[in-house]
Fold these 2 entries.
Entry 1:
Amino acid sequence: MSASADALDTIRAQIAFGAAQIGRFEAMLLLGHAIGRTREFLIAHDDETLDEESILRYHMLITLRSAGTPIPYITGRQEFFGRYFEVNDAVLIPRPDTEVLVEQALLVAPAKPRILDLGTGSGCIAITLALEIPGAEVTATDASAAALATAERNARALGASVRFREGFWWDAVPQKDMFEVVVSNPPYIRPDDEHLANLGNEPLGALTDGIDGLQCLRDIVAGAMAHLKKGGWLLLEHGYDQGEDVRNLLLSAGFAAVHTKKDYGGNDRVTFG
Ligand code: GLN
């Protein structure tokens, strides 16, 4: 056995150290982030030694993670629909379930559509649609200036052309602006939902309306008809138990062809009409 096999400053030893606290997968992610190396590099060079500063940086990240900070807020990025988006604690971390909303929007969008994304957060929906649909003209809104700044950086980094507007829901949209597709993943968690406690690092205002979970969805549906072209579509993400409520909201507002799509977990997630 060589002397370095017992050394505590090798990549291998430091992965084992982190794995005991946060699991091997996350330990490798954070070590890779701390030293600017890929997972493949860590595996191929696991007997290399790390300098003290790198180890300190890595241990700080483990402490953050152990205290509950989500990995994307530590690494500053999250994958969505095959692209990496910058995230920070001003925006919701993009969820795989939201890809169901994007997929459905891609199915219903006509050629060269005018698209509106209300409450864009990181910009993941608006930017993905702008990049996936040739000739799409995309507008995205958010009430948070910090979120909009993040979305703008993401659009620039990914080469998407999106018009950003600040304001609450329809307040941000000029009266005469009309769209073929309106999408939104608004805050829809009920304030008394026990899941909310586990999402404590993300902006509360992006998660819950503070009322009954349906208020933002109501506000969006209420204004949608006035901004949709004839034959246009409204697509809304919502909670697993809100499908019927949202279908009824759309039907009462005069929408037709109202359907709900399930997410990857088999729950109602996206209603459109
Ligand atoms: N539209 C963004 C997303 O889907 C933000 C949603 C939100 O903050 N509620 O991730």
Entry 2:
Amino acid sequence: MLSIVRSCGLALLVLSAGTAVAQTPLRAWNIHPDGYPVTEAMKSFAAEVASLTAGKYTIELFSNAVLGDQPKAVQMLKTGEIDVAEFSSAPLSDVVPGLKAFNLPFLFIDSAHMFRHLDGRLGEQLAERLKTAGFVVVGWYDGGARSFYCGNKPITAAKDMVGQKIRVQQSEIYIEMVKLLEATPISVPYKEVLDNLQQKKIDCAENNMPSYESTGHYKVARYVYLTNHVISPEALVVSTKLWSKLSEAERAAFKKAGQNSALLMRDLWNKRVAAAREIAAKDGVQFVAMKDPAPFIRRMAPLYAKYMADPAIRGELLSIVAK
Ligand code: GTR
């Protein structure tokens, strides 16, 4: 028999054998819906943490950004208002400048290239810096390859983006990138992009294929220009407030569960990218592959120059370029 008594956020899990384990309920933030690779990987993380800690830590997952938008959640995790979250590198790079390198257009050839760095020394260095800023990385997830999509006209070259109103994440590097395309960046929370596209407040947005499909953006923005301009990571993080309360064995359990969930996420991700693309194509979306990235890259020259001159980022950039 198993009975759970909850009081003031702390509960006792009483096992029939007579042992009692103090139970700590935790709250996890996530922006995506059910079935999305991030959500499914976070569920598996929660289940493994519960099992490895004999039911001491129970993680309740709040998906779909119901606890607030991503920039707000970044602050909530920093203060310990939430315990676990999955963030993309764009909002995190505002708290850890070294992460900006990972959002530069055309830096990585593909996800394998990115994970070569993240699963190595560079990933460890970034995790150290994130920890100092209040975020303990327990797994690097795949943020996919982002492309542009528009509702008002087909885009077949960088020059077609001139004058377009393009939704961006609330992140400096994305704003700069869109300005260099001579387009107008409009910062809109993720969950409001569909509405903004429908109401024609924005002409275009940019994201990876699973986000494009799962949000329903593909029903409104029917022209995809497959630029794959940003290949970037996402991170499963735990608040330093929670981390400081964990024993060494518990930390090891969170890390193990985090790493396993990252492997699951990356696997689910690749399948979902293909499925999302198929759903949109069957629905009649027009995909145009970018033939030559050079004109786009040339426009980004001031961005590269700026970040190469930034001592907080230069080291990371050079180590990526070298390998
Ligand atoms: C998604 C990402 C989210 C969020 C979103 C956005 O691909 O997984 O965390 O950053 O893009 O564009 O706001």
